[in-house]
Structures are given as C-alpha cells and as structure tokens.
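Practice problem: predict the structure.
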Amino acid sequence: MMPAARESLLDAAYTALARRPWSAVRMVDVAAAAGVSRQTLYNEFGSKEGLARALVRREADGYLAGVERALALPADARERLTATAEWTASAARENALVKAMLTGCWSERLPAPTLSAVPSSSAVPAQRRADGPLPSPGDFVAAVRDRAVAALSAPGTPRADTAPGTPRADTAELARTCELIVRLALSCVAAPPGEGGVAELVRVTLHRQPV
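Answer:
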C-alpha cells in the first residue's frame, strides 16, 4: 500500500475517534471513509489493536516533529524553550491522544495500547515500527530534553539575555534546565495556567538561568 493510503486510513481513524469512543469505532467504517476495502485495512494494520498502535505512533511522531520545529526557530535559547513548552501545551489541548501520551491518563474514550512491544508478523515496515515500544510520559521527557540540549548546544545558537557575568550553561546544567522546562510544560497540560499562560511561567522559571 502507498504511504498516502496508510495516512488516509489513519486520518479516517482519527476523525472517527473524535466523534465516538474507540470502542464504538468500526474497522469497516474506517475503511469506507478512506475509500478502501476492509481487507485492505486489515492487510495494512493487522487488527484494530494494530490500527490503534499505528495511530498513537503517528500522533507521537507529530508531537515530536513540532518540538523539533520549535527548537529550530531563529531565536535565542530561552525563546526556543518557551516555544517548545507552548507547543507541548497546545498540542495536548488540541489532541486527546497527545495529552494521554504525555500524562499517562487514558480516558475510556481512547484506545489504550500497551506501551511495550507486541509480536509483529507484519510485512509493512511502518506497522512493524508501530508494533514496537510506544513512548511513555517519561520517554517523552527524555526525548524532548535530549533534543533541546542538542539544539541549544549547537554552534551558533544565540545566547540568551542573561545577567552580566552569567556563564553559559555546561551540558549537565543545560540538560537540567531543559528537563525542568519540559516538566513544567507537562504540569501545564495537567493543570492549565491562568493569565500569562505557559510562556510567562517558563520565562519566570528561566530568569537568570544559564542557558
């Protein structure tokens, strides 16, 4: 199957999930919405569980791609971290699967595939990847932290506007700061902040932090 057809099936599944609980989503309806046969759907994903894993994997990848975009902004380190935190909060607000993955709180409306790998006999490379381990909240913290450290320690990254004489963070300090911001963003997912929003909390937290 062409990748575009797989994406169409995942789009159809995502749309169906927005309208009804996962338990009420039928494979035949997903196939019909994507314009393929039910057998084609099963050939691609293997089962409804396989479809759920593939959907979760895609939304996880989409979230991390957004992190990469935020960290690549032409801005200093603090603004990039702020953008990453804002993206985390907005992605979770707009996407129930992303929120569930980041918090570990899966509502009864959502699929809740086991995070460990499952046996896979699929001939589809994308499905074999989906059948592998899925990220836990802790995995996301580590993934975003490590991406942030790599982006912010790259040569040419603009220096944040720190107090005179403040040294640039070493790698360990930068990793601690990045993890702190990721965890702050996740706390905003669980308990949305009030006036000023995520950006204000991050800026206050980063005040005088060497980054």
